[in-house]
Amino acid sequence: EFVTLEVAGGGAFTASGTAPHDGAVDIAIRTDRVRVGEADQPGFGFTGIVSNVEYRGASVKIAVSGAGIEDFNVILSDAAFFEKPVRTGDAIPLSWNAADAIVLGRVEK
Questions:
Q1: What CA–CA distance (Å, rounded) separates 7 from 20?
Q2: What residues does 29 pair with on adjacent strands?
Q3: What is the pTM of this model?
Q4: Tens-of-pLDDT digits for all 109 residues of the chain?
Q5: For residue 12, what are the β-bridge partners?
Q6: In which order are the strands placed within the sheet that holds 35-36?
Q7: Positive or negative: CA dihedral 63, 71, 19, 41
Q8: Domains in the chain, please, with CATH?
Q9: Strand, coil or helix: what is 31?
Q10: For residue 66, with 0-12 CB atoms within 10 Å meaning exposed, 13-18 middle and 19 or more buried, which class applies?
């Protein structure tokens, strides 16, 4: 079962799970399953602004904000990153498959 959740700040995301009763929920998206590129379906991606790029040898961690999300991390292989490199300040489309987004419930911070 999929539910669509609205994020304060304008985004809307679809995730596998049940709708929350109190309106507050966190979803998880595997950082290594996110790809740079437009989503195939609405709710499975957003366009964000790159706030940091961290090289980690065989992988690159990209921090992005946008669509009501302040700190969204993406892990790309170095080959995928260097095929389409990005820099801090770039606006990039991000997407993922439906199976890679799940409703967690509310996680206290």
A1: 13
A2: 101
A3: 0.81
A4: 787 777 776 678 888 887 766 667 778 888 889 999 998 888 888 999 999 999 999 999 999 998 878 889 999 999 999 998 999 999 999 999 888 988 886 655 5
A5: 6
A6: 35-36, 91-95, 45-55, 59-66, 69-77
A7: negative
A8: 2-105 (2.40.50.100)
A9: helix
A10: buried
